[in-house]
Amino acid sequence: MKDPRSELCSKYIKIFLVVSCYWVVSIATVFVNKSLLSGQSVNLEAPLFITWFQCVVSFVICFTLSTTGGITGVFSFPKGSPWCKEVARNVVPLSIMFTLMIAFNNLCLKYVGVPFYFIGRSLTTVFNVALSWVLLKQATSMRCMLCCACIIFGFYLGVDQENVLGSFSLLGTVYGVAGSLMLSLYSIYTKKVLPSVNQEVWLLSYYNNAYSIIIFLPLIVMNGELSVLWNYNKFGSTFFWIQMIIGGVCGFAIGYVTSLQIKVTSPLTHNISGTAKACAQTVIATEWYNESKNTLWWSSNIIVLASSAMYARFKQLEMEEQAKKPIPEDRKSLV
Fold first, then answer.
1. 248, 177, 267, 203 alpha-carbon torsion, rounded to 10°
2. From the centroid of its chain, how far is CA 249?
3. Is residue 7 part of a domain?
4. In the structure, what pLDDT confidence band is assigned to residue 266 with cuts at 50, 70 and 90?
5. Of 4, 19, 192, 194, which sits 20 to 30 A from 302 (CA to CA)?
6. What is the C-alpha to C-alpha distance for residues 282 and 304, in angstroms, rounded to an integer?
């Protein structure tokens, strides 16, 4: 018989490794994208093209895994094709939200510093509550509303202190708010679209990247990036393409480690881990870029982080209470 203590120890080691992997990949992805979008080594003023190329890399990886069925002994990848009319009709509207979401996120990262990036995109929870009420008619408890109010206050304080420190970017902040809005919309509509892909998250990611490659093209043209690309002189550089491919691989990897962390822990643990990761990311970024922040700036981060963690905890308690309620006899046949 297996030793229960040995099994428990193995489980904790696995959880530790997965959470650590999520932290490393997530933080590395932010720094890699920041380097690509505004670093001097790349120096390409075409953020949408860079984001488009990352979608191309993710699509190639997903296509390869879908063809091979995944990686033996690691994970299986569902088979499917994004070029089916029925699939396109169901998924393309969501893919538009997905495209705008990653575009706004990268545009935000281009114009704001990594330390402020978390605050710039901190309104996702607030938009989730507002859109759930408007679109789904779902009410929110008073304690969760108070958490949202604290998040808004923390966001305002962070913006104010960025302005005081002289590093505030209105354009980057607007992109951050827009990215938070699109992330909320994407999260809500994902629940409606998943049944059409047999609840396969990886298949949905595959389709989203496939359609985003097409959706991004007119956006690149409208953003005036064609002339920038035409005059760019580093397309022949091997180092440039290595950096671009690394960015694309990181974009794919963050999706995998996020799903893996939720699988081996829970959605609540994932939220807590993400919140703690954001705190570590902010500290690392201020040291990496040698930026000095005042007490009020740090207070804004603490307020947003604590409020987000409390909101996640309150939602979990509410879901547990809801699950314990008995189902009325007249509704049992409908469940």
1. -40
2. 15
3. no
4. low
5. 19
6. 12
Residue 117 domain flag = yes
Q: Taking all residues of the chain, what is their mean pLDDT, rounded to a whole number?
A: 87
235 Cβ neighbours under 8 A, 6+ residues apart: none
For 258, the domain range is 15-318
pLDDT per position as a tens digit, 43-63: 899 999 999 999 999 999 999
Residue of 175, 171, 170, 188 lying closest to 128 (CA atoms): 188
Decide if 279 contacts 317 (C-beta within 8 A): no
Mean per-residue pLDDT for 275-294?
87
* 3-class DSSP state of 27: helix
- Name the β-bridge partners of 71: 75
Q: How many domains does the chain have?
A: 1
Alpha carbons 13 and 7: distance in angstroms, whole number: 10
* Paired residues of 75 in beta bridges: 71
DSSP 165: H
Q: The tokens of 169 are what?
A: 């970017």
Q: Given this model, what pLDDT does residue 194 score?
A: 85
pLDDT of residue 151 exceeding 90: yes
The tokens for 297 are 């700036």
pLDDT at res. 197? 87
Q: For the chain, where are the E strands, in sequence order? A: 70-71, 75-76
47, part of any domain: yes
Residue 232, pLDDT above cutoff 80: yes
> Diameter of the chain by CA atoms?
71
Closest Cα to residue 272, out of 299, 317, 305?
Answer: 305
Long-range contacts of 265-274 (CB under 8 A, 24+ apart): 265/15, 265/18, 265/19, 268/312, 268/313, 268/316, 271/308, 271/309, 271/312, 272/309, 272/312, 273/19, 273/22, 273/23, 274/26
